[in-house]
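Lab notebook, bench 4. Still working through the backlog of constructs that have no structural model yet. Next entry is a single chain of 362 residues. Request: give me the structure tokens for it.
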Amino acid sequence: MNSVVQLFLTNFREFVRDRQALFWTIAFPIVFVGIFGIVLGGGDEGASYDIGLVIEDDSQEATVFAAILEEFDAFEISRGLAVDELEQLQEGKRSAVVQVPRGFGSALRTGTPQSLQIHYDASQLTTQQVIIPVLLRALDVADRAITQTRPVITAEFRTLQAEKLGYVDFVMPGLIAMSVMNTGVFGAIQMVSLRERRVLRRLSATPLSVWKLVGADLAFKVVVLLVSTAILIVTAVLVAKVKINVENLPSLAAVVVLGGAAFLAIGFFLGAFAKTEQGFFAIAQIVTFPMLFLSGVFFPLDGMPDWIRPLITALPLTYLTDAVRQLMVGGAPINAMSINVVVLVVFLVGFLGLAGRFFKYE
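Model written out:
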């Protein structure tokens, strides 16, 4: 019995000393459940959505409808002209736009069914699952309050895209962005392996500079990244039937290269503090894992609670995912494309400089 106890204690000590085992056994499930709790467990509670309201009719019925819509706590109503509000929707600053046409009031007074145009982005899951049902409920409330007869107010839905996008169209660009992140960050493990095997130490005795070493590895990884991304896109088109914007492929390739280079720079920086490959994996997983759930890869960001949004805006994958989704399927943007590009350039230059500053041959 004593031998069993000793073996148990020995295994316990080895387990405690193995940081990677501790992370995957204890920390990983806690982080995993915590992130899913944030994303799915009441993230929409108390959330409000920006709705554009275009009133083209000066009747009392239109005024009453606008007042009823403004009473819904889930909506922040912004009134404006159709061209302005639709532009805001296109730029991702509105969740939907409700357009009340001319003749709305007179039609209701005669009992003629009247349609309101609801413009939205079909690639945004929160819009389809949360906002549209609430808007339909608002229409029903307004219908009962104004007409007090059989329902005559209906909704005419208009999307930004020529065809309605499904969940697969939303998630595929996110998966490509995730692949770019993983290829970039974990691509730096080769440098850690060379250091661990003391190859870098021997290279330090040669005229080879740090920047040439990093530059060659960066160029190779970019080629690998482009090939792997092309394979993923072809697979998405042939297997998942994703309809991509072919005319944006050159821009998409440029964004993928920029994003991959930025994440590889982050990987080089992390690798400067890892003594072994196992240690690098643990560090890289801690950095990359939260981004999978907080950067819009699998879930839309508009339902996230306000307190976590500063963290979301600080994650580079947020900008890469947004850029890839805009170019690939034409989803409504979170940021302007210029902002996405500038932020990725800042991450590339900043972390490349930090990687060079903390680079070690041994």
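Notes after review: DSSP finds 15 helices and five strands in the chain. The mean pLDDT is 77. Flag for follow-up if needed.
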